[in-house]
Amino acid sequence: MGFADFLSDAGLTMLEQWVTTRSYIAGYGPSQADVASFKALPGPPKVEKYPHAWRWYKHISSYQSEFTSLPGDPSKAYTTYGPEKSELTINPKDAPKAVEAEEEEEDDDLFGSDDESEDEEAKKKREENLAAYKKKKEGKTKPAAKTIVTLDVKPWDDETDMAQLEKNLRAIEMDGIKWGASTLVPLAFGIKKLQITLVVEDDKVSIDDLQEQIAGDEDHVQSTDVAAMQKL
Fold first, then answer.
1. Residues 41-67 pLDDT 10s
2. What per-residue confidence (pLDDT) applies to 151?
């Protein structure tokens, strides 16, 4: 299916919905998919109408000097990217809902069908067994799904106070986040980026929301990228 014409409200709405749960058009880092989509826009979308598309546009604009070196096929049109007819769940915290619904259906069939012709005693026994099974299953605590994330946080210039930048970042409090080790990685012209690892609980933390909070430190942070993600 792919994106529609970005000059139309329908096309911009499609882009808005696509980047609501994503930092990039494809994958976990900037690529030629972002470049093609960025160039297809006449300018930044209206922030009051398309806030997520506007955030994505401003973020990708910080890579304009790197457009030619970003990975991907530069010959592909932006209409080759975007939603398919059916999408898989993107945000990990949305996935358990579908799984739980399937489990409920499986539980209902686990002890036989509720046939109207079965006698009352057999029906009562089946319902007792089902109730006991559900109670036993509810008593088991499933371990929380977690992901190790590596973030790259870029400052504005070589005069940015990186110690204060990291202090402000670690001061962000979100349930389900555990901050890990960090290091400064040289970029160019004396500028260094902060690379930091963290562990997040998938059903509690949205990486997009976290990146927005980090970007709120406008005095120090130019942009953030997800360098790597790995399920625990």
1. 999 999 999 999 999 999 999 999 999
2. 93
Q: Please state, in angstroms and rounded to a whole number, the distance separating the CA atoms of residues 84 and 101.
A: 24
* 91: nearest Cα among 218, 215, 222, 208: 208
Supply the pTM of this predicted model.
0.41
Where does residue 221 rank: exposed (0-12), middle (13-18), buried (19+ CB within 10 A)? Answer: buried
Please, which residues bridge with residue 179 across strands? 198
Q: What is the DSSP letter of 191?
A: -
- On whether the CB atoms of residues 22 and 89 are closer than 8 A, the answer is no
* Cα separation values, 51 from 32, 153, 155, Å: 22, 22, 23
Q: Residue 206 in contact with residue 214, Cβ under 8 Å?
A: no
pLDDT under 50: residue ranges of the chain: 86-99, 102, 106-107, 109-111, 113-116
Could you tell me which residues come within 8 angstroms of residue 16 by beta carbon, excluding any fewer than 6 positions away? 45, 50, 51, 52, 53
Residue 131: other Cβ atoms inside 10 A: 11
